[in-house]
Amino acid sequence: MYDLKKEAVLKFKDESDIKKFLDNIINFNNYSFNNQMLIWVQKPDAEYVTAFKTIKDMGYMLNKDSKGIKIFIPNFYNLAKIKIGDEKYEYKPYFLLTDDEKKKYKDKNDDTITFYKQKLSGFSLGNVFDVKDTTIPMDIIDAELNPVINDRKAEDIMDCFIKTIYNDGFKVEFKELEGGTKGYCDHSNHTIVVRKGLGSLMQMKVLIHEYAHALAHKHLENNHRDYQEHRNQYETEAESIAYVVSKYLDMNPSDYSLSYLYAWSKEKDFKEIDDSLNTIVNYSKRIINNFEKFYDREFGLYAENKESVSI
C-alpha cells in the first residue's frame, strides 16, 4: 500500500492532476482515502466508479475490454450472542458455532443464540469499474449526482450550513473586521467569525474555509505557535478542503487553491504530502456528509439530487 500511494502522489505532475484528484473526492465520497489513492494510481481519469453487481442491477453492461480497478473491500463476520445463564452471555463467531447452535441461531422463536454484531475480519481486493467503461449514460449520471447551488441559492444554503457548524460544536458570528481579513476560526472559544458586509457567496466560502480549520486543526486550540510554524500546511489543507466542498456545492471555486496545494507539495516529502492529502480527503468527506445529513433532515430535498452509485 505504501508504494502504491507513493506512486499515486508522484503522478501529480502539474496543477491539472491536483484538480482531477480534488474533484474526484466528490465523486468517490463513499471511499476511504486509501481506496481513492488506489483508484487514482490505476485510472487517474476515472469519474464515477461502481461494482459490477450495481451495474448489472441497474440494467447495464460492461463495455468490451473494460478493466477493473482494484480497491480494498472490508470483510466482516457475524458474532453470535449465546445465553449461558441469567444475565450471562458468551460471544462466538458464527463460523465457530456447532450445527446445533446454528439451528438455534436461525430459529426466530429461540432467543438463546442470537445475532450480536458484525466484526471486521480484514480486507480483500475487489474490482470496481469506471462508468465510462460501461453502457451507463454519463449525462444521466451527471444530472442525478451533481447538485446545482448558484449565487441566488447561497443565502438559503448558508442558513443550513451554519446549523451544520453549530451541530459540530462551533458558533458563527458576523463582525466588523479590520484590514483585508474575511474571517477566522477561534479554536479557544469554538467560534467561527465572518466579516460583515460580504456577499452571500463569499460568506459561504469563508464559512467553509474556517469550518475546515475548526474540524481538521483542533490541535491548534492552545497552540498558536504551531500554527505560525506550519501556517502554509494548515492553510493549504483548509483551502483544498474548501475547494472540494465549494465544488460539491457548485459554487465555482477559485483555482487558487490548486496552485497553492501544488506549490506547497513540490517542496515536501512523501510523508508530509500523504498526511495532508489524508486530512483533505477525510475532512472534505466529513463536511459534505455532515451537510447532506443535516440538510436532508431539515428539508428532505437535497439528497434527491445526490444519490450515489458507489459501493
Measured distance between first and last alpha carbons: 21 Å
**Low-pLDDT stretches:** 147-151, 301-311
Shape call: globular
Structural class: alpha+beta
The order of strands across the largest sheet is 1-4-2-3
Please tell me the overall pLDDT. 80
Q: Report Rg.
A: 23 Å
Strand content: 15-25%
Number of DSSP E strands: 7
**SSE arrangement, N to C:** HHHEHEEHEHHEEEHHHHH
Report on the biggest sheet.
Answer: 4 strands, antiparallel
Specify the helix fraction band.
40-55%
Q: How many separate helices?
A: 12
Summary, kept brief:
By secondary structure, the chain is of the alpha+beta class. It has helices at residues 2-10, 15-27, 33-42, 52-57, 99-106, 138-145, 151-167, 200-216, 224-229, 231-248, 256-266, 270-299, and strands at residues 49-50, 69-85, 88-93, 113-130, 171-175, 183-186, 191-195. The strands form two sheets. The chain has a four-stranded antiparallel beta sheet, with helices on both faces. The protein has a three-stranded mixed beta sheet with strand order 5-7-6, covered by helices on one side.
Structure description:
Among the domains are: about 55 residues, no CATH class; about 160 residues, no CATH class. Helix 1 packs across helix 3, helix 2 packs across helix 10 and helix 2 packs across helix 11. The chain is α+β, with helices and mostly antiparallel strands and about 300 residues long. Helix content is about 50%, strand content about 20%. The relative contact order is 0.14. The strands form two sheets. A four-stranded antiparallel beta sheet has the order 1-4-2-3, sandwiched between helices. A three-stranded mixed beta sheet has the order 5-7-6, covered by helices on one side. The two termini are about 20 Å apart. A hairpin with a 4-residue loop joins strand 6 and strand 7.
